[in-house]
Design goal:
The structure is a single chain. Strand 5 and strand 6 form a beta hairpin. This protein has a 6-stranded mixed beta sheet. The longest helix is centred in the N-terminal third of the chain and has 16 residues. It is built from 6 helices and 6 strands, in the order αββαβααβαββα. The protein is globular and about 45 Å long. The chain is of the alpha/beta class.
């Protein structure tokens, strides 16, 4: 009885000790998250829960290396008001699980017709999309196909693309 308990305890300790990896480098990375997303645990990553109202904060760019937004908030943040905020603050945003590609999150892709996320057709696959917004409606986009949950290796690859 005690032997089984001991083996179980040692196994748990060994497995929990393996989760002490660093994301990209040993530098501290701060992520602001709107909505719940399942992300791997890293020693150098701090994740803070945000609300949509926090997107208007003047310190957002300085407080977080990038933001993660989950699908429950795609409709709201695809409004031109928020896209303007992303550009004005030059934010980097990971849209985790977009079933409609990146077009809903870019102003120039909409043309003269104000559309939001739900107005777009579904894509074949869900994607994790990083958009680095710049002034004057410029942007840099990196995307990766994903399953329901973004695999740890895929998340690490996306972050590496972001920083390289």
């Amino acid at each position: 009885m005690y032997k089984k308990f001991y083996v179980l305890l040692v196994s748990i300790l060994l497995l929990s000790g393996c989760s002490g990896e660093y994301l990209y480098s040993k530098d501290s990375i701060s992520i602001g998250q709107i909505g719940n997303s399942v992300l791997p645990d890293y020693k150098n990553v701090t994740i803070m829960e945000l609300t949509i109202a926090d997107l208007f904060s003047d310190t957002l760019k300085n407080d977080y290396d990038f933001l993660i937004i989950n699908p429950l908030f795609f409709e709201a943040v695809s409004d031109d008001l928020f896209i303007d905020v992303f550009h004005d603050k030059e934010l980097t945003v990971l849209f985790l699980g977009s079933g409609k590609g990146y077009a809903p999150f870019l102003k120039q892709a909409k043309g003269d017709v104000p559309k939001t996320y739900n107005d777009y057709n579904h894509a074949l696959h869900k994607q994790a999309i990083f958009i680095r917004y710049g002034q004057d409606d410029t942007h840099r986009t990196t995307a990766m196909q994903m399953d329901e949950v973004l695999a740890k290796e895929d998340f690490e690859q996306l972050v590496q693309r972001l920083y390289d």
